[in-house]
Amino acid sequence: MDLLVSFSMLSFFLIIGMILRAKLKFLQKIFLPASVIGGFIGLILGPIVLGNYAVFPLPKEWINTYALLPGILIVPVVATVPLGMKFKSWKRSKETKMNDDLKKENSNIFRNIAVITGILFIISQGQNFLGVLMNGVYKITGFTDGTYPTFGIEVGGGFSGGHGTAGVLGSLLESMNQPYWETAQGITVTTATFGIIGGILIGVFIINMGARKKYTKFLDSPGDFPEDMKKGYQSDVDKQDSFGKETTLSSSVDTLAFHLAFVLGGSGLAYGLLQLIKYYNVPIISDIPIWAYAIIVMYLVWWIVCGLGLDWAIDDKITSKISSMFTDFAVVAAIASMPIKAVLSYFTPILVMMLVIGAFTIFGSYWLSKKFFKEYWIEKSVAILGTSSGVFITGLLLLKMADPEFKSPVLNEFSIGYSINSVVAFIVYPFLFGLLINNGLFQGILIPTIIIIIGGILIFIGSSKRSDTIKKEGVSYE
To answer: Considering the entire predicted model, what is its pTM?
Structure first.
């Protein structure tokens, strides 16, 4: 009963956040998500900030539950990542060979994806590189009283992962028996909040500048954004998007229930696999966090589903909504339970990190896109900036501002590049944290360095091949 009531309180905060976003102009201008607004309402008006004078006197047990929720809810969130990816059916394909034009078109799409993925690698792992490096500088110079081994990763985690990554980092550190896991989770929430606000504001500035200088392909004037995008809801029934396809009939099982069961069932298999590995005390892999098992298990499950030709039963729009739903509640819970005193004790070094890494993110997104893309570079730059300072939805939001009807090929290329970068990030975190905790800062910095180099290679391959094609045929396939 307590779990249900405490969860209903999170729902209440989420609804308050939605109402405030719909009514307050300054919240609309910065496009702050309702989950973030609601979470801060719970934090500021709750016992963590106001103590005995709290407007919402949340019991300590509830706050403890909220602190754990992000680490729990992130499991089904990452379990949805593989769903929708294209795997070949094991049945013999009857499709004819692609013609030369289609092959050429796909070839150029793959090159663009390689460049976008390379840029995302450089920015996301560059954030981790700078975070680790600055933590080392802090320790050497004595700038702070003391930082923990993984300090600084929260900036990259919050910027390129958003609020949901707070649960990933928190659960990972908790599984590694690190006592500061709650503090790291709270700091990640803080950096994610600054990142998403700053990313949107800078992104809107770049779009407006691009519109004035005629860099944008689809905007006639600055600030030409739909009103419903600002308010966060669509009241026109004719313009409301569909939730997804009903792949099952309710006479057997409701489609939403089936999709939720599929996602939670995969998460359950991951828990079972982890318990089996812990039971036999398998070295190294028994310390990998549960969400890493979830993504591995779901890749295998989805590969089998596609191989059997049953992928028609899963609609990726519905699984995306399930992921978004869990993420919204994880964000509200993470912010409402933020250990504000512990976070504030690191405010100055984190602020310096955010300024340095934020400048790197803005410069990298803008300059690399302008240098390596000929057309739609402004649209690609804001999409990369959004996802590198917030979440995929932030990048999608900025892209929609620059390309309201998604007429450009950017969405498809950006989505695939983001998916690849996300998978790599999830794989990297356990190894990065293991090295930082057990081997020190300067060995831990090797992992982001290697991935940055890989990113540079991807950009070189993608851009050089495209240049060769343009020289041979005298056209651009951008």
So the answer is: 0.73
